[in-house]
Amino acid sequence: MSNGADLGRLVGYQLKRVQAALRSAMDAALRPHDLTTPQYACLELLDQRPGLSNAELARGAFVTRQSMNVLLRNLEDAGLVERPASAPQGRALPTTLTAEGRARLVAARGDVLEIEQRMTAHLDAEQADLLLGHLERMTDALDPRPRDSPTLT
Question: Which keywords belong to this entry (predicted)?
Answer without folding.
Answer: DNA-binding, Transcription, Transcription regulation
